[in-house]
Amino acid sequence: MIAMLLAGGQGSRLGVLTSNVAKPAVAFGGKYRIIDFPLSNCINSGIDTVGVLTQYQPLRLNAHIGIGIPWDLDRNVGGVTVLPPYEKSTSSEWYTGTANAIYQNLEYMENYNPEYVLILSGDHIYKMDYEVMLDFHKANNADITIATMPVPLQEASRFGIVITDENNKIQEFEEKPENPRSNLASMGIYIFRWKILKEALIKMSDQSNCDFGKHIIPYCHEQGNRLFAYEYNGYWKDVGTLGSYWEANMELIDIIPEFNLYEEFWKIYTKSDILPPQYVSKDAVIDKSIIGEGTSIYGEVKNSVIGAGVVIGEGAVVHDSVIMKGTVIGEHCKVDKAIIAENVKVDKNCAIGVGEELPNKMNEKVYAFGLATIGENSYIPSGVTIGKNTAISGETELADYPDKVLASGESIIKVGEK
User: Fold this and answer.
1) Is residue 336 classed as helix, strand or coil in its secondary structure?
2) Which of 247, 368, 273 lies closest to 33, judged by CA?
């Protein structure tokens, strides 16, 4: 079995966190990037041939994956291959849907002529043994197996929903139904018999935005292929919104975390920089937090996830926040329930995440959950106050803050930023 990992998504619901980086390359858990989880699942499951399909802002993702050394995927045969869209002799086109992306890489799969192809998403946090799913697939003599998990019925309309018989054979498949008749949701993880996948992709290749949930699965079902649902009951998180991303980070620091990064038998591998050890000053206070390598803490950190190489200044207080790699929080700053991306500089005496919760005027669906969100490489001048449901991106100056305040629900996106 070979794996095809879809990692081209923009992740627009993460707002300024993904203006310059693909969603699978966003930092997570103080040390990792989101794509590390499905990649580690592959190597832990004994899959040594992985094609990673990239598209949106791929630079950081490509540099992170490299030749796959951290995941033991630097192989002479197989290993990890980054697959961006490329120009063909007849046409040149971007990947327009999940299945279209796989279709454009038929030649890559042909090279290996596998028995089975595993299709994965690059933007979910979970641990799963794909070998167990393959055993289930073989035991049922299935053509296609879809990993599913039970979700609350009121949330089921957000997913592709499967209806099965008592043997887990799929009777019907509905993509995001208004009135769901089942709560078994597709996780976007599929195992196909290679011949079935190839035939379906070629047959449906003229569909615009060709997608697995909307086109390939229904087509295969109509053809009378044997479709089965593999039920998964472990931890699985789609970190597609700022709220779910923040929540998933916070869950890592529970006393008994539901998702454990410290398990010996199922390690999460990542590309690590060579960094010095942490430094904690005598006046520092750290309580229930994850602290990345090379971080210097002079202030107070509580219930937070702090990335590598971060500096928390003297007298600064950081609570319930995610602070990513290389960021500097100046002296006497107060940071409460914020997501601060990589290489941000917050000058001294700032207060972030204060005041009442008001809907964000620019995009109330994205910048919600009471969070203050700051995009990478931003600069926050000293002495400013930033409210909740706010977004900042770029090098701001005092003139951008009337009365030194960015009120709740407001945003500052500097020119040149997306």
Assistant:
1) strand
2) 273
pLDDT tens digit sequence for 98-113: 888 899 899 999 999 9
Asked if residues 350 and 406 have their Cβ atoms less than 8 Å apart, the reply is no
With 0-12 / 13-18 / 19 or more C-beta atoms within 10 angstroms meaning exposed / middle / buried, residue 45 is buried
In Å, how far from its chain's centre is CA 349?
A: 32
CA distances to 116, 151, 186, 187, 238 from 159, rounded to whole Å, are 25, 9, 7, 8, 11
pLDDT tens digit sequence for 159-177: 889 999 999 999 988 888 8
The stretches in the chain having pLDDT less than 50 are 89, 417-418
Whether the Cβ atoms of residue 133 and residue 214 lie closer than 8 Å to each other? no
Amino acid at 9: G
Distance CA 118, CA 147 (A): 11
Q: Provide the sign of the torsion angle of the four alpha carbons 258, 261, 262, 264, taken in this order.
A: positive
Strand 160-164, strand 170-175: pairing: antiparallel
224: alpha, beta or left? (left if phi > 0; alpha if psi -120 to 50): left
Q: Is the dihedral of CA 32, 35, 37, 39 positive or negative?
A: negative
Q: What is the pTM of this model?
A: 0.91
Other CB atoms within 10 Å distance of the CB of residue 245: 27
Closest residue by Cα to residue 248 from 142, 100, 71, 124: 124
Pick from 311, 313, 263, 321: nearest CA to 289? 321
Kindly state the helix (H) or strand (E) to which residue 136 belongs, with its residue range: helix 130-139
**Distance of alpha carbon 299 from alpha carbon 312, whole angstroms:** 6
Residue 418: per-residue pLDDT: 43
Cβ-proximal residues to 262 (8 Å cutoff; 6+ apart), any chain: none
Report the half-sphere exposure of 70 (CA within 13 A, side-chain side).
19
Instruction: Report how far apart, in Å, the C-alpha atoms of 404 and of each of 38, 215, 346, 355, 397 are.
Output: 43, 52, 14, 14, 10
Pairing of strands 390-393, 328-329: unpaired
Task: Say if strands 2-6 and 116-121 run parallel, antiparallel, or are unpaired.
Answer: parallel
CB 16 within 8 A of CB 374: yes
| CA distance linking residue 209 with residue 63, whole number of Å | 28
Instruction: Please classify residue 256 by burial: count the beta carbons closer than 10 Å to its beta carbon, then call 0-12 exposed, 13-18 middle and 19+ buried.
Output: exposed
